[in-house]
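Technical annex, item 7. During the second reporting period the consortium partners agreed on a shared format for inverse folding records so that results from different sites could be compared directly. Each record opens with the tokenized structure and is followed by the designed sequence. A conforming record, contributed by the partner at site C, is shown below for reference.
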């Protein structure tokens, strides 16, 4: 896949896929945003910055994701991603960031299409990405209030939490980061947070310095525990998966004022959900996943 493929595909298909030239991010049409820069966070994770042209800001609800798309010569390819900046309307500056893990091609596999296309974007050419919507079942409203869509019927429920737990794995960090940052920096009421983050090794911890800095600043209000499956001898933190023992040790216990959110690969969500259920959390009541 080349930049020429992207450019030709955009010209050929922009009308048939309802690409909006202007207007707020919405759930009905794609809006083009301009690539600004790429920052390498580790060997296969990048932070991408884009410039939008929406006078009223991007308005992606905290906790949700948007759909990112490229027009190819044979159609559109799209993936969901969470925005990691800006957090809060007062932080709007006409740009936004998203963090993406790219599976590069090697001898064992062909690599992931979307991440590799992102990695080819050129700021000097003013390459574009297409954005649509604000999706997902969880929307943070501020001051401990969440709107959550029920899996069974999509019914929206309002949850007011006095304590919040998060569990994430890998790139599941991104919506969790956005929610925690808004809770700590934008709320009038300080809601205590406990966070268990699981990764393969220390290099895989997304936003490692940023999330640890938040914990240092906010003290007892926000405590994070990292656990690694494949840590070397220099690692002094927890080892292994985000299992029942660690959840019980580091997170708030189950009660009607405590809510737990999980985000990560499906096997991790399943295992964490089973552990949470055993510890007294009820799926759809005080335990949800992004």
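Designed sequence (site C submission):
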């Amino acid at each position: 896949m080349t930049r020429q493929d992207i450019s030709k595909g955009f010209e050929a298909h922009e009308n048939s896929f309802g690409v909006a030239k202007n207007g707020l991010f919405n759930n009905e049409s794609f809006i083009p945003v301009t690539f600004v820069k790429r920052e390498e966070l580790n060997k296969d994770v990048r932070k991408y910055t884009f410039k939008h042209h929406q006078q009223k800001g991007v308005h992606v609800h905290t906790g949700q994701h948007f759909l990112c798309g490229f027009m190819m010569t044979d159609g559109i390819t799209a993936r969901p991603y969470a925005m990691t900046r800006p957090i809060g309307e007062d932080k709007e500056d006409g740009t936004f960031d998203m963090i993406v893990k790219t599976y590069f091609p090697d001898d064992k596999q062909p690599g992931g299409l979307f991440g590799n296309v992102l990695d080819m974007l050129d700021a000097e050419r003013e390459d574009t990405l297409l954005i649509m919507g604000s999706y997902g079942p969880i929307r943070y409203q501020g001051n401990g209030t969440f709107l959550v869509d029920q899996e069974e019927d999509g019914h929206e429920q309002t949850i007011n939490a006095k304590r919040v737990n998060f569990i994430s794995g890998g790139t599941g960090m991104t919506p969790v980061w956005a929610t925690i940052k808004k809770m700590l920096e934008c709320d009038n009421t300080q809601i205590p947070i406990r966070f268990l983050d699981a990764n393969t090794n220390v290099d895989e911890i997304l936003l490692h310095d940023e999330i640890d800095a938040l914990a240092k600043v906010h003290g007892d209000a926000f405590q994070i525990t990292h656990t690694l499956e494949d840590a070397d001898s220099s690692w002094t933190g927890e080892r292994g998966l985000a299992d029942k023992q660690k959840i019980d040790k580091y997170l708030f216990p189950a009660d009607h004022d405590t809510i737990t959110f999980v985000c990560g690969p499906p096997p991790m969500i399943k295992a964490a959900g089973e552990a949470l259920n055993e510890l007294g959390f009820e799926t759809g009541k005080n335990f949800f996943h992004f």
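Residues 138-289 form a domain with the Rossmann fold fold (CATH 3.40.50.80). Residues 107 and 265 are 24 Å apart (CA to CA). All partners now use this format for quarterly exchanges.
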